[in-house]
Structures are given as C-alpha cells and as structure tokens.
Design brief:
This protein has 463 residues and is of the alpha/beta class. It contains 17 helices and 14 strands.
Length: 463
Amino acid sequence: MVSLTPNPSYSLTIRMHVPNQTGMLAKVTHAIATAGGNLGDIDVVERCRNNVTRDVSVDAASAEHAEKIMQAVYALDNIEVVKVHDRTFKLHEGGKISMECKAPVRTQEDLAMAYTPGVGRVCTEIARHPERVYDLTIKSNTVAIITDGSAVLGLGNLGPAGALPVMEGKAMLFKEFAGLDGFPICLDTQDTDEIVETVKRIAPVFGGINLEDISAPRCFEIEARLQQELDIPIFHDDQHGTAIVSLAALVNGLKVVGKAIGDIKLVINGAGAAGLAMARLFKKAGVNHLTVCDSKGIIGQGRADLNSRKQEFVVDQSGTLADAMAGADVFMGVSAPGVVTVDMVKSMAKDPIVFAMANPVPEIQPELLDGIVAVMATGRSDYANQINNVLAFPGLLRGAIDCRAEAITTGMFLQAAHAIATLIPDTELRPDHIVPSVFDQRVALAVSAAVQQAARDAGVARN
C-alpha cells in the first residue's frame, strides 16, 4: 500500500534554537525533508546575535512518522530543540467551542430585562402562544448533536467521552458554515429506548436534532422513532449527509464521462448506515443497476444472513466484491482500507469512476490509479474531490429549521444534492473538480434554499 500523504492531522510545531549562521536553517529543513516531513510555517520567535529561536511546523503521515522526523532533528549538531507540541492536540486543549452572550448585561436595567422580573413576561407569552418559542428563544437557531459514542469516525465504540471531540467539531462546523448553535450531547447509554426517551425530553430546547456516530442497526430505529415522535427535523448525518454529497459528486462525475445515471452499473461496498442510505437515495435519483456488497460479498439471493435492511437491496448476482466490480461504471466505498486492488478497477467499464471514501485510509490509494480511472474521489482533504459531509449538513439543518420543517424528507436530500452539484457549472467540471470546496460560502446558502423549497413542496414546512 502507498504511504499516506503527510497531512495536518499529524502536524507538529518544533521550537528550536538555531545558531545565527548561514546555512543552519537549511540543515534543519533538509533533515525534515529527508525524513519525509512536509514543511509548513517557519516563524522567528526571538533573534539575538548568536542564536535564532524558531517555530517550525511540519506535517507527518502518522504518529510513527512524526517520531521519525523528530529523531532526524534531534540528531543535528548545534540544534537545540526547546519543545515540541502536537498541533492537533494543541487545538483541542480546553475544548473547541464556548458559549457567549448576545446581549450585554452591564446595568441593573439590562438585568431586569434579560432576567427577573422582565423575563417573566416573555415566559408567559410563550406559554400562551407556544409557537413564539421560535421567536423569543434560542430554539430557532439550535441543533442538538446527539451521540452515544458507539461508532466514532470508524474508530469503533469509544463511549461518550471519547466521542466528545467529534461532537465539538460538529458544533464548530454548524456555526462556521451555517450560523447555527450546535450543542454536543454525548449520552452515557447505548440502549435504544433510553436514547429515544432522552432526546424527546430535551427536544423543547432545539430546532433540530443531528444524530452522529451511533452504530448500525440501532441508528436506523432511533432516527425513525424520533422522526415519528417529534415535530422537529431529525437528521442522521452518517447516513444522509454521506448520501447527499456522494450523489452530488456522482451527478457531476457522470457529466465528466458522458454517462446517464439510468444506464450505469454502480457498486457500493459497505452496507452500514452510510452505504444503505446511499443505495436508497441513488435509487430515488434514477440508478437502475445497483449492487451492494458487505464484508461477505454481494448482497444477493441465497444469503441467509441478511437483515431486513440489507434484504431491500438483494440482487440475482452472487460472489465477491471483485465479481461485483467487473464491468461496473462506478465504485463507491464506505468500508475498509485496502479492500480494492488495481486489477479490480481495471476490470471495470470504460472511463470508471471510483469514490474510495474510507477514512483515514481509503479502499485504494489514488496514486495507484493514475491513468486508470476517469474520476477519483476520497474522503480525505489532501486529495482532489473530497466527499465531505460538511457540504450538506450545515445548509440542510439551516434550511429545515428556518422553514420549521416537521420532518426531513427524501425530496430534501435529492434537492440538496442537486444544489451542491449545480454550484460547479458544466464549463468548469474536470476530473479533479466535481464537488465545490467545503469553504465555498455559496454551498450552505444553496442547500438551505433547496431544502426549504423541497419542504414546502412536500407540505412539511410550517413557516
């Protein structure tokens, strides 16, 4: 397998004293480069006649690679390493989010209006007219980010505390890209009934619920029950966010290769929350020839181990993933590292499209497929065409909350996907440019508008 590209998730900042002499900094940078590190910022902290104190930032490919880079620096003569910090851990110190007041409380007058006695008037108004809770409280701008920590980022069952950094990150993204206030709520239970009841009891505070990193198949039941029992939007990002962005990328990828969505043969590897949601949405979008594989191969006739959700996608074919990929136009992986080989991709149809979205290590490394595939995408930020859920979930919840949708519908997913896809004009489509940047400020606005229109068309918008 090709080594992973050095990236910021394994980045270091090394503070060092370097002799103030010609060529000394070059020795440092050469040692880092020889060890395979990718240099970032080099900042002067302090300069004196004899020494320069510098902070040197370096990207590595793994924790082991970072240690190798450090050993190369330690081995240099006359270079004194003062301290080293892991930039990712440094960013998380003390948490990544905080709460702040929107209105000042500096005088007795401010206090009387924001709190007692003035707040009583507002409480009474909401009690008399419950719909005004959206106008007079934070509810119209809040999302509860709910997890039990049972399926964290493909890392497994880390529990609620282990999941908290991810939920904080999710809250950051809601705020940064859609202006929504997300609250991380990590539940110390993995019992389906307890999760449903807990979310129902806290729901009055929130305009929407984002379910995150809950293992399958429990996540399906939790989402369905909450959708049925609450009148606010319930969104499971691991399912539907992945499906929306994958569909947007598929629409544009097919334009690049000149194929129609109804004619292609599409293979999905991975039959968990994301894979099955993708399959369901792709069918709605017009994919007629769809094969889903799990760890045991094709979900086909004769399999006695299939649950009801997998049975929805049973096909006549049987065999391995390699059998499924033969002659396929599109492969999408939401599964495990390294399960796809070059020969398997070579067996696909002309101008194959490969989305290897396992993170952090994809099903097959893009470097292995140079000149073989027509379009390549991954879930990583250090390759072209990143399939990133942040293109979907901020705008989708923004739109659903703004129109006070009673539910999330498939129509919203379809319209969100097409809104993302159409942000890249046909004249700008390229094999390495089929989805907009996650930093494109148009994305959340476009998705929000599309979702609101879809909600009104479906009759679930109350505003």
